[in-house]
Amino acid sequence: MGIKVLFFGSVTDITLVTEMSLELCADTDALVKELLSRFPALGNKKYFLALNQQVVHENCPLKQGDTIALMPPYSGG
Amino acid sequence: MTDYNRYIRQMILPGFGADTQQKLAEAKVLIVGMGGLGCPVLQYLAGAGVGTIGIMDADQVSLSNLHRQLLYDESDIGQLKVTVAAQKIKKLNAGIQIVEYSYRLTKENAFSIIDLYDWVVDATDNFGAKYLINDVCVLLNKTWIYGAVNGYEGQVAVLNNRRIPGPVHYRHLFPVQPLHNEFASCEETGVIGVLPGIIGTMQAAEAIKLITGLGDTIKQSLHNYHYLSGRWYEIALTANPKTPIIDESFFYKTNYETACMNEADELEDIDINEIDVRQLLDIQKRPGHFILDVRELHEYPRVDFVHAQIPMSVLKESLDQLPQQPIYIICHQGIRSVYAAQYIKLHKGVETYSIKGGLTAYFNTVNNE
Fold it and tell me: Which of B45, B90, B131, B208 has its CA 20 to 30 A from that of A60?
């Protein structure tokens, strides 16, 4: 089942996809590390993380079937 | 009685009586920005009977606004947006007051203007204004309604909701203002007219709920709309305890005008060499020149005269793909290419040139030859 990762806005300029599946990682820190190894440019990107549609501000354990979102800010109007 | 007839269709809704209408009449809302978001916000708030609406924008109406800013028409081109908007809205609803501010929100004027209003709607098109609105609203304990678009996506959130103790604000989500070239603007990435229409209408809907107290007004969430898939994605928000306290000293030392990261200051010392399209056409005749396109991969049209395309979003990791020789840099409008030229010159030590006006100028010149 793994983890579903959703990308939004300008984060998809880097990932070129709006979602992907990853093997289960122990926690959100490990997942971000995995994403950075695939997409190094995410390191310079501003975004927040949401776990199952709930913002996370610190490292959180993950379980099979969780959904993580990377949400950047937008500025157009 | 006139008012009764005007608002009858909303006043007969369950839970929406004369006292609710009165709350709208007494409300004061400031809309910062009268572009793609600001137009629908103003139209719906004025229609609903919000008694006092401040509208703020320094810009004039231009032809390229008209596909999304439907409050304006061709005869308005060149006129101040706030003047035109106020005239049109007075025809829609003469019973409300419109206050015009034909200038930008700045660190100097933000406190005194925002203080006059109960609610602030962010309909701006830049991060500086969004961070300024946030910080002043935090300091003045005002609720504001964030709205923004990027490509085919848009976001809406009620922030710093004063009905909630310790509410979530913008810096809980995005603590530091991005560099001004870190994210491309609408002008650069394009925007389809209905998208700010949808997001602005959502902002107006949230404003009306906040004013009237109808419905759920204490849920803290960010809504992301993806136009192409038609999907809304909602994220529940909580305050981040690690966010620095916004107090007056934080406000006074923050530079909202430009990006406030050290790298920006460092880059500002790098001279920018700009060349125009004619100079570029001459350079193209010389062998061995190197032209770099820094647009994102999804941007059109593709051009065959560039030697590499390294999007701005991955430039920092991709410097080793560039040759050790002068580099001519192009983007859509000539805005990102200036930053790329500075960045590459600083970190790679080669001469760089930004092409003025970007591909827009290039096609204008080539097509007029």
Answer: B131
